[in-house]
Specification:
- This protein is of the alpha+beta class and 125 residues long.
- The chain has a domain of 81 residues: Hypothetical Cytosolic Protein, Chain: A, CATH 3.30.1230.
- The protein is built from four helices and five strands, in the order αβββββααα.
- The strands form two sheets. Strands 4-3-5 form a three-stranded antiparallel β-sheet. Strands 1-2 form a two-stranded antiparallel sheet.
- The protein binds zinc ion.
- Zinc ion binds next to loops.
Length: 125
């Protein structure tokens, strides 16, 4: 795009100062695991689908959502306290394998190793 930069520079607003970013108010949600209030964009939305809890990182799935830090610690706590049952208005605790998988992927190669008893049999040789 030729000339765009020059145009932008020449018409930079005078006086009030350029403030291109409107600070949108970010909704605050409560993590169902640790009960900490947090910006929604830092939390993972979880919805129930056919008795299973599924991650909804794009927040597009319909229905009630539970909000969770993408951390296995919070997921564990939420499960222990049956937080999903309450938050999602379920009768029985949902299966959270998909959420756990997603969370573990987010944590990825990060700090703490999260051994999943299912597939990783670590052979330390
Ligand atoms: Zn949390």
């Amino acid at each position: 795009m030729p000339g765009r930069d020059a145009a932008l520079h020449s018409q930079t607003a005078r006086g009030r100062g350029p403030s291109p970013v409107h600070t949108r108010s970010v909704p605050i949600r409560t993590c169902v695991g640790c009960r900490t209030r947090e910006r929604a964009d830092a939390l993972l939305r979880v919805v129930a689908e056919n008795g299973r809890a599924v991650p909804d990182p794009r927040r597009r799935l319909p229905g009630r959502g539970a909000w969770l830090h993408p951390r296995t610690g919070c997921l564990d706590r939420a499960e222990r306290r049956s937080a999903f049952v309450r938050a999602l208005r379920l009768r029985v605790a949902p299966e959270t394998g998909a959420v756990r998988h997603w969370v573990q992927e987010q944590q990825g190669t990060g700090s703490l190793p999260v051994p999943s008893s299912e597939e990783s049999k670590v052979d330390q040789s």
